[in-house]
Amino acid sequence: MPDKVTVTAAWAKAHLPELLNEVEKGETIVISRYKKPVAVISPVEEPKKPRPKFGTGKGKVKLIDPHAFDPMTDEEVDALLEGRY
């Protein structure tokens, strides 16, 4: 984890875009008032996308040709190999 940088509230107010650029790079910023920490600005962790569970796509794909997965006949194989298919 990167070191924390401490800035005053007045400086943070005047330089907020610069602070946000540093936070985007992974830096953690502590804002203080009268030498007492009052706030922390830190990068947000990206939420992880849940992995799809096996079998959840059932019924979402529709085959137009009911014979799409039937084995090829010898004539179809010959035509495919000769480039006529």
TrEMBL record:
<protein>
    <recommendedName>
        <fullName>Antitoxin</fullName>
    </recommendedName>
</protein>
<dbReference type="InterPro" id="IPR036165">
    <property type="entry name" value="YefM-like_sf"/>
</dbReference>
<dbReference type="Pfam" id="PF02604">
    <property type="entry name" value="PhdYeFM_antitox"/>
</dbReference>
<comment type="similarity">
    <text>Belongs to the phD/YefM antitoxin family.</text>
</comment>
<dbReference type="InterPro" id="IPR006442">
    <property type="entry name" value="Antitoxin_Phd/YefM"/>
</dbReference>
<comment type="function">
    <text>Antitoxin component of a type II toxin-antitoxin (TA) system.</text>
</comment>
